[in-house]
Every structure is written in structure tokens, then in C-alpha cells.
Design goal:
This protein is an alpha+beta fold and 91 residues long. The chain has 1 helix and 3 strands.
């Protein structure tokens, strides 16, 4: 009799635990999907090259004989987003 009650309690505790786990899993998966979507949107916004203005600064050959070009870029929509970009052609 006691063993049956213990078994029923054990089974009910396991059932409640899996229900909580599945809710937690769904919540975490939803949060993960939202984070992935947010990262994809930020990546798309960062890679919007139509918003950037590139200006050639200099051309040179580096130590390895590669022809390189240095560019300065600035975002049209956000003047604080700016930097330098170097492109080298391998030989």
C-alpha cells in the first residue's frame, strides 16, 4: 500500500517536472528565436552598404608585394558610424 502511494507520488512529481521543463524549454526557444531575429536585423542594418560613403585615401604596395587601397567610410544616416577599410589584391 505504501509502495503504491510512493509510486503514484513519484510519477506525479515526474509529470509536473516535465510540464515545467517543457514550458521553460518553449520560453527559452522563443527567446533564442527572438535573439536570432534581432541579430539578423542588426547584421542587415550594419551591412547596408548603400548607406555608406567610401572615399579612397591612398594606394600602396605592402611588404608582400600586394597592391592595397585604404578607404575611409562614413554612414549617411549616422555620422558617428565611421571607420577605415583596407582592400589588398593578392598576387
Amino acid at each position: 500500500m505504501i509502495q503504491k502511494i510512493m509510486a503514484i507520488l513519484l510519477v506525479s512529481l515526474c509529470a509536473m517536472g516535465t510540464g515545467y521543463t517543457s514550458k521553460l524549454s518553449k520560453f527559452l526557444n522563443k527567446m533564442d528565436d527572438e535573439q536570432k531575429q534581432r541579430n539578423a536585423q542588426e547584421w542587415q542594418q550594419d551591412m547596408n552598404f548603400a548607406d555608406f560613403v567610401f572615399r579612397l585615401q591612398k594606394r600602396y604596395s605592402d611588404d608582400h608585394g600586394q597592391r592595397c587601397r585604404d578607404y575611409e567610410f562614413r554612414a549617411r544616416s549616422n555620422p558617428y558610424r565611421h571607420g577605415y577599410f583596407t582592400v589588398c589584391d593578392e598576387r
